[in-house]
Amino acid sequence: MQWRALVLGLVLLRLGLHGVLWLVFGLGPSMGFYQRFPLSFGFQRLRAPAGPAPPALGPARRPGTPGGPSGPSWLQAPGPGAGAAGRGRPGPAVCGPAHWGYVLGSRGRGPDEYERRYSGAFPPQLRAQMRDLARGMFVFGYDNYMAHAFPQDELNPIHCRGRGPDRGDPSNLNINDVLGNYSLTLVDALDTLAVSVYSEFRGFEAVTLNWFVCPDKQHAFIIFVFLSSCLLLSFRVLGSLLSAHRIITDSKQPFGDMTIKDYDNELLHMAHDLAVRLLPAFENTKTGIPYPRVNLKTGVPPDSNNETCTAGAGSLLVEFGILSRLLGDSTFEWVARRAVKALWNLRSNDTGLLGNVVNIQTGRWVGKQSGLGAGLDSFYEYLLKSYILFGEKEDLEMFNAAYRSIQNYLRRGREACNEGEGDPPLYVNVNMFSGQLMNTWIDSLQAFFPGLQVLIGDVEDAICLHRYNWQLQAPDVLFYPLRPELVESTYLLYQATKNPFYLHVGMDILQSLEKYTKVKCGYATLHHVIDKSKEDRMESFFLSETCKYLYLLFDEENPVHKSGTKYMFTTEGHIVSVDKHLRESPWKEFFSEEGGQDPEGKSVHGPKSPEIKVINSSSNCNRVPDERRYSLPLKSIYMRQIDQMVGLI
Fold first, then answer.
1. 549 and 491 in contact (C-beta within 8 Å)?
2. For a tag on the chain, would you pick the N or C end, based on fewer CB atoms within 10 A?
3. Is the pLDDT assigned to residue 365 strictly greater than 80?
4. What is the rounded CA–CA span in Å between residue 576 and residue 323?
5. What is the CA radius of gyration of the chain?
């Protein structure tokens, strides 16, 4: 009987200790004896992925950074006593699991329910079930698009019909900025077919993609170089054509036999022709920053808008750079880099930040808000991804400087994600010149940023940012067009940590999409995320990104993960293999018209702005682009071979 008394005493002692913890700190568990969800979500102090050291990120915040008006502590910039980096570690953690359960969405249900849902293991059988559900989601949307909408651009899934450009109202930019009779949804989904439904990739062989070599079809449509809503024609079409071309011509064929009989680089020709038709956007701008819209047949309209968003003008470098290096033609990367450098030179001298809208003729900032969401997101993303692909150190230097400014002025809250006093971090929107708080608006595009932080090795901060506006405890934007950014960051965080928490999050997202957005012929945009009212539209990025990231999250054995090839995702989710071919350029241009310095430090004059002339092709829709349709006067003045890759991913 003594052992029974001893066991009973230990049980009572444990209950008493938990009771004291619960009453005093709000940290104790329920009456159960299961292991609680750790404070740090199960992550230790995570380090960057194996390989070369991550880029130096500089100090996290300057002491005394302006923080805007008075208010809650999470809005305040650090004071002079915040430590050398501006966000010192003030002491042990004060926010326990109960706090996290509240912060991350369990209000009204209690922390225990939250922890039971997200802290457990994720069995292989459940993972396989979610993988098949994600594949089925893609197949359902794709099959219905092909049955009811193709060759139109998008599917209206509620009424089971196609959607194309709004011919009756050319000013309807919400439609006409994206749609132009390209069979857009099919083109955007080409590499998703290879990644998730391997046998179906060949389906595009039978598809007639003649839109770019048949310019008469575009006589009425003005096409965005980049959309103010950050939907880039270059991202959706040019990037997909290049990705699909690389999959077809990959000698390793990691996704199975994706080769096509008698393939003669047709997709590369189409990508080339599209890029040529976009080149007029870079003409006749005093800054080198491109116009926001261009007609694929006639060029820039006479009354074109001179204002463009930073992301729109500065996020062409990946796709244009890949095309230049595949063709051995510097023109496309040249104009994209010139635009990036023009924007970079317009950043604030005081904060190092950029605004979100600029005048391409005057260089004056029309929108002075600096943040991580719409209008700026992919500008930062492509500085880093361009370096990963091409190895140009200047891209990394610009990204490092931009990241330091972001940490200095946009980040609020305590230094560490899961320890220390104060509120968890939050990134806000500030005035680019003063750093003063403008608002705490968070849109769905901002959800990409944790994924970008994973690529640079700042995984702990990415973990903490992987959620919505916890302070508001409500969505800032009620409209949800099936965007992929949260899924993307969830996928990348899982790849970095292998913590099953992210599989549970992905399952929640997948099941919510099935429950609230699935309709008769596809998946519909949510007009209102609270009342779940729907709009009759399925945009192309749902198949090209949202479905792809969900599938890859649960497909452990996918060639993307197991083939030994390093892949990077464009901002539209198109896969690009990271290899030496893209890091070896037989040409090197000096891009500053004011001149520069050669490797020995001697001053040299850069080339004049290229006279880019686009000549209309014939109306023969069955031929590939004529190489003589444009002039390429640029001359190589400097050559360099990149001998080794930098393994950032």
1. yes
2. N
3. yes
4. 12
5. 26
Q: Do 310 and 358 form a contact (C-beta atoms < 8 A)?
A: yes
Which residues, including other chains, have CB under 8 Å from residue 281's CB and lie 6 or more apart? 225, 290, 291, 292, 293, 294, 300
Mean pLDDT of the region 550-561: 96
DSSP 109-132: T-HHHHHHHHSS---HHHHHHHHH
Could you read off the pLDDT of 235-254 as tens digits, one per residue?
888 999 999 999 989 999 99
- How far apart are alpha carbons 522 and 77 in whole angstroms? 46
CA pseudo-torsion sign 131, 135, 137, 138: positive
The residue type of 92 is: P
The tokens for 154 are 């998008």
Enclosing H/E stretch for 224: strand 222-224
Residue 640: φ, ψ to 5°: -150, 140
| CB burial string 474-508: b at 16+ within 10 A, e below | ebeeeebbbbbbbbbbbbbbbbbbebbbbbbbbbe
pLDDT tens-digit readout, 186-204? 989 999 998 887 656 555 4
Kindly tell me if the per-residue pLDDT of 141 is higher than 80.
yes
Q: What angle do CA 452, 290, 394 make, to 5 degrees?
A: 45
For 37-85, how does the pLDDT look when each residue is reduced to its tens digit (9 = 90+)?
222 323 333 333 333 333 333 333 333 333 333 334 334 443 333 333 3
Give the Cα separation of 603 and 558 in Å (integer).
50
Tokens of 61: 């915040």
Query: How many C-alpha atoms does 625 have within 13 Å on its Cβ side?
Result: 25
Residue 299: DSSP 8-state:
B
d(CA 633, CA 546): 41
- How many Å apart are CA 138 and CA 334, to the nearest integer? 37
Q: For residue 134, is pLDDT > 90?
A: yes
535: enclosing H helix or E strand: strand 534-535
Tell which residue, 132, 134, 147, 226, has the closest CA to residue 186. Answer: 147
Angstrom distance (rounded) from CA 398 to CA 35: 45
571 a known binding residue? yes
Rounded distance, CA 622 to CA 640, Å? 39
Q: Is the pLDDT of residue 606 over 80?
A: no
Residue 76 carries which DSSP code?
P
- H helices within 287-411, ranges in order? 310-314, 317-327, 331-345, 377-390, 393-409
pLDDT (tens digit per residue) in 387-426:
999 999 999 999 999 999 999 999 998 888 778 888 888 8
Q: The tokens of 611 are what?
A: 């006279």
The larger pLDDT score, comparing residue 620 to residue 276, is at 276
